Amino acid sequence: MAQKITLITGCSTGIGLNIAVKLGKDAAKKYMVYSTMRNLGKKEPLETAAGDALNDTIFIRPLDVVKDDSVTNAVNEIVDKHGRIDLVINNAGIATFSPLEYTPLADVRDVFETNFFGVVRMMQAVLPHMKEQRSGHIINVSSIGGSLGTRSKPILFGFGRVGLFYLTA
Predict the structure, then answer these.
(1) How many CB atoms lie within 10 A of CB 145?
(2) Taking Cα atoms as reference points, which of 37, 60, 5 lies closest to residue 114?
(3) Residue 10's domain spans which residues?
(4) What b/e string do you get for 83-95 counting C-beta neighbours within 10 Å, with b at 16 or more?
(5) Structure confidence at residue 108 (pLDDT)
(6) Which domain of life is it from (predicted)?
(7) What is the pLDDT of residues 39-83, one digit of tens each?
(8) Has residue 3 got a pLDDT over 90?
(9) Could you report the per-residue pLDDT of 119-165, keeping only the tens digit for each?
(10) Does an H or E element contain 34, and which?
């Protein structure tokens, strides 16, 4: 069985890092994982967690979901090398933790640009390839926090994630 060519966004920490390592260290080597992050200066935790799978089944690449060229370059690199992308996991996300009335509008725009439009940008980049190959899966990672506001977590984070929920549903 051919390896599933997988692209994951937001792999410098947390869920993205853990998914990349879990898939990349699969004993049957079912996945070839392109683990991406916008800042390669933060790749050390992923390199450490990947261990022997690094550059075998786990590959680290730059990808900033808010930049068209970055998305296009990453997707094209994978398709040029493998002829396909089988699985995309849209995980990249950011949050701001200041109360809305003190949050600069530029920060609000950044949250939406990453958490919602970044997913749209990724989907627009990979869907033509998946349609052409007549296969593929896209998983959009969201958060229950996207629908719940609390005193300790301003609702701003949730705005972009709620949009993602409706895009995915």
Answers:
(1) 15
(2) 37
(3) 4-168
(4) ebbbbbbbbbbbb
(5) 86
(6) Eukaryota
(7) 999 999 999 999 999 999 999 999 999 999 999 999 999 999 999
(8) yes
(9) 999 999 999 999 999 999 999 998 665 555 555 555 555 566 666 66
(10) strand 31-37
CATH of the domain at 92: 3.40.50.720
The Cα–Cα gap between 142 and 150 comes to: 17
Q: List b or e across 98-113, with b for residues whose CB sees 16 or more CB atoms inside 10 angstroms.
A: eeeeeeeeeeeeebbb
The CA distance from 33 to 116, in Å, is: 23
- Cα separation of 80 and 76, whole Å? 6
> Which residue has tokens 């051919």?
2
Buried b (16+ CB within 10 A) or exposed e, 15-50: ebbebbbebbbeeeeebbbbbbbbeeeebeebeebb
pTM strictly above 0.85: yes
Give φ, ψ of 137 to 5 degrees: -135, 145
Query: 4: helix, coil or strand?
Result: strand
Total domain count for the chain? Answer: 1
